[in-house]
Amino acid sequence: MANQTNDDKPQEPQQGSEGIPAPEGAANLIDTDYVIGQDNITASPMGIDVDLHGKVFMVSSIVILLFVILTLAMQAQMEPIFNSMFSFLTTKLSWVFLLGANVFVILALVLIFTPMGKVRIGGAKATPDFGYPGWFAMLFAAGMGIGLMFYGVSEPLGHYGTAFGGISMGEDGLRTDWAPLGGAEGDQQAAISLGMAATIFHWGLHPWGAYAIVGLSLAIFAFNKGLPLTMRSIFYPVLGERIWGWPGHLIDILAVFATLFGLATSLGLGATQASAGLNYLFGIPDNNVTLVLLILGITVVALGSIMLGVDKGVQRLSQLNMGLALLLLVFVIAVGPTLMIATGVLENLLGYVKNLPALSMPFGREDANFSQGWTAFYWAWWIAWSPFVGMFIARVSRGRTVREFLIAVLVVPTLASVVWMTAFGTTAIDQVISSGISEVQDAALELQLFTMLEYLPLSAITSFVGIVLVIVFFITSSDSGSLVIDSITAGGKVDAPKPQRVFWALIEGAIAIALLLGGGLGALQTAALTTGLPFTLVLLVGCYAIVKGLMSEPKAK
Amino acid sequence: MYRKIMVPIDLAHIEVIEPALQTVADLAKHYDAEVCYVGITSSTPGSVARTPEEFSQKLEAFAQKRAAVHGQPVSTHTIVSPDPIADLDDDLIEAIDKVGADLVVMPTHPPKHLDVIMPSHGGKVATHTKASVFLVRPGAGE
């Protein structure tokens, strides 16, 4: 082919007898006899067609059912087990998360500048399936949307507060304060700067680094190497053909477990928060009926979205989401302390860069409460979510170059987080400092955003937009999550019959309702977060796989 | 009367659409029409092909095989979609104009209750196109 460079050994299309041709333009397919869907079971019970990977579907369903029943039946016994497991991970093994996350970010940043950044996902001539606005909206809505709503106000305020409070020692010589790094006792300006840096740190390069690694490795191994779009495929360079057996099944089952429980518990907890907001704003009773109705409503809209598909459902909803979020952001910047926010963006970005080495240091940390209770907790969270977000990102990123992909998944969202956190954080901190308003700080976490908005003009409208955003962000996570689980349990097929994706969206809602009424949401969420540890290892393999995979790819012109 | 017959086919389930293929062969011969076989594939690797390009080749090979059976001129059209299951109907409707077909022959399943929430593809296509549509039930002519 004329457009091939002299790189490695890109294969010609008509190679071998049957000849697996290159993806559109030059690329380097993996030669395997495995046919996608060969282990699948197809049937149509009661006129409903199914096409499932027997082992992955059965085992994940059984494990999920078992966990739900156990948690419901023996909540008192299970909760401490999950909690101690998780606290062991975030205290004793916090360095694994911090170190792993640093590796992901560094690799992703380095790849932008290497010649490997020129490789195009889907082959040298592939064209993008989605335009920039839709693509970026989907990346962002699946990736973190909802968290920005809840932590945009509370985290900057919280870290500012603890940093301003300074260091306090317990009797055992250990720090009892939650300040990041050394704090900034009594120094208002320094405390703001450190607080913002710590917040941006948790919402910046590191979470997106984890997503980028999963997304890129899956995209390369699916679109360029021709392997199915499931987690197991990134293990091909390490395990070879064994990924089609139990090692592969286990990886996929773990991904289903993390994704489903991550989504279902977030749905449950998110409904609690949305309901508290509705109660605060409109006096709607904050009880089980409201909660169940909210979950049902979210599930129904998510169902509609996945029935319409990625293009007409998920993409449009994500764009709506982005539009609303942008409106709210512009509003807060305009009516908040505009000048402070404008100068703050650059200052906070610099503060982030300056504090980044110290904040991301995995060893010898003195601020254990902060680095374990906040950072390691977040890292476990992001990494546990990365199979879901990464797989979805991979699916919609065909046709982009690696460089384009990494800039869009790593750099742009980080900058967006900087602007968002600065706007909401600065406004809230300014309310506390300049106007002496303490209600925001005192409010419950889920209400802090609304309390802040109340002190700005037009709060009836903006609070309503806020509530809608919270709900829509849930829907956009829920629909993309169901699509991901469906394709994992269908052995990597994205064209499995529709009833299957409906099934997963319903299960998600059902689990959320069951745990909400029966108790144990928090416990099961903790259980989902513990998958952050195995997935840290999976992602490290992903790093190796990316480099290995990209080295054998021809570059795009 | 008809110049170009469009036939949406599912390469993964070629055996179940045999009655439709037979119908197409007879109609094409009768009207001396060209037959355009249309296939839809996901952009991700799937069971039929690992890349869209491989899919096109398989579709072309299939069309040539059919040409040997009915002797009418054939062409193919590949639709690549990020979510084929959801986009199928709209993509097919779009393809009718794109390939310039005046008759669509497609296999379909008998009506069932689930159609209320998930309408059959044939029914949906028929309500959204100016071209004539011929839906062939499974086991037709037996």
UniProtKB/TrEMBL annotation, chain A:
Q: Where in the cell is it found?
A: Cell membrane
Q: Where is the composition biased (Basic and acidic residues)?
A: 1-11
What segment(s) does the record annotate as region Disordered? 1-22
Report membrane topology. Answer: Multi-pass membrane protein
The membrane-spanning stretches of this chain are 56-74, 94-113, 134-153, 208-227, 248-269, 289-310, 322-346, 376-394, 406-429, 455-475, 502-521, 527-547
Q: Which GO terms describe its molecular function?
A: transmembrane transporter activity
Kindly give the InterPro entries that the UniProt entry links to this protein. BCCT_transptr
GO cellular component terms, semicolon-separated: plasma membrane
Q: Does the keyword Transmembrane apply?
A: yes
Q: Which UniProt keywords apply?
A: Cell membrane, Membrane, Transmembrane, Transmembrane helix, Transport
Which NCBIfam families does this chain map to? Answer: bcct
* Family, per entry: Belongs to the BCCT transporter (TC 2.A.15) family.
Please report the name of this protein according to its UniProt entry.
BCCT family transporter
Supply the source organism for this entry.
Halomonas alimentaria
**Taxonomic classification, please?**
Bacteria, Pseudomonadati, Pseudomonadota, Gammaproteobacteria, Oceanospirillales
UniProtKB/TrEMBL annotation, chain B:
Domain UspA intervals: 1-137
> Coiled-coil stretches, from where to where?
none
**Protein known as:** Universal stress protein
Q: What is the lineage of its organism?
A: Bacteria, Pseudomonadati, Pseudomonadota, Gammaproteobacteria, Oceanospirillales
